[in-house]
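Worked example 2:
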Amino acid sequence: MLRRQAGIQTGPHQEYNVNRKVSLDTAAGRIEGSYDPRFENVFHAFHDNFTQHNEVGASVALTLDGRRLVDLWGGRHPGGEPWQHDTVCTVFSSTKGAMALCAHLLCERGLLDLDAPVTRYWREFGAGGKDAARVSMTLDHTVGVPHLREPPKSGGFWDYDYMVERVAAEPAFWEPGTRQGYHGLTMAWTVAELVHRAARRRLGRFFDEELARPLELEFWIGLPETIEQRVSPMIAATPDNPWIATRFVQTALNVAGSPTNLFMRDFAQFDVNTRACHAAEVGSANGIANARGLAGLYAPFANGGSLNGRQFVGRDTLTRMSRVAAATGEDATLMIPVRFASGFMKSMDNRRIPNCINSSMLLSESAFGHVGAGGSIGFADPECKLSFGYAMNRMGTGVLLNERGQSLVDAAYLALGYRSSAGGAWTA
């Protein structure tokens, strides 16, 4: 149960006092860090994850008005070593948010046009009925190549040029723009190759030079070998009966050749705990970060597009980033109702749908970000100037948030004076 506090009133002259240090032993390992006392509920939720929800190793962080007010980490690596201040882990599809931000930076600079045909930048992509696809469709999961029908070669996911060629040649599953289906892995090459061609730099380098370094983030798409010893291996989710009973799993197991089946096939081959995976550029799935990196990434975009005197995007670009671009009552891959902005997830409430466990992400209506497989998350909320990150090494079931990540998000919104999420999004 969350310990709710009185609402926090924020504004340009709000004083912050991050003075509560944490060093607390639990049966799961030590929790360390600091938090502003007004976010004590976030600390309690983080502690409860270790004592009640089988958290192994994790971190949570948030900023308000660009100031980091929560920075907590704790638990252990799978081998028993303590999770340290600088420990990082794979954040899976939370990487998509970082990749989308790169695309929007290029739009802001006039180097990429969301309304232009993809073939303006990448002629080969027009093969297989994709000639009318627009750049925006690669970001909102309507472009029509959610997966490859034939599996990639051994090690193919780590071979960027090979995957770009395969995705470009793949015939469309549907006429681009007419259906929405989560591009779980292929987005790594549809969006990243557009970034590459518009910026004349590959995604990993562009992200590092234009976002990670300026914001001093612990976040990589293509991990340097010098950081490898800091990576905590991921622990796969343990399937249980509620998860197995979901329409997603049943479709994956029983409908051969469906986008859901192909997604599960490819994810099973995505060997995340290898140096080859960490070193590759898979902008949809293999980013390495911690909560501090995720929260820091979104901090400028929670504050009008700028931070510490540096402007990243203007108001018009920020508005387009945050509004719903595509939504459907049944995603062709995830088999649930979804709502996406241009490259980001919006608040999604599927709690009342039968056989749909851990398939919601409850934010405010203004917020945008991305969940990663197993339950990591990073997002910006321009309405309250909040940016948030959570990363963990024990994956949970479901396709969106599980109780560990959602409880932390809930605690943050309650601390900010938000009243309820019963309507499908947090409201004040």
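The first helix runs from residue 40 to 52. The chain has one domain: 86-404.
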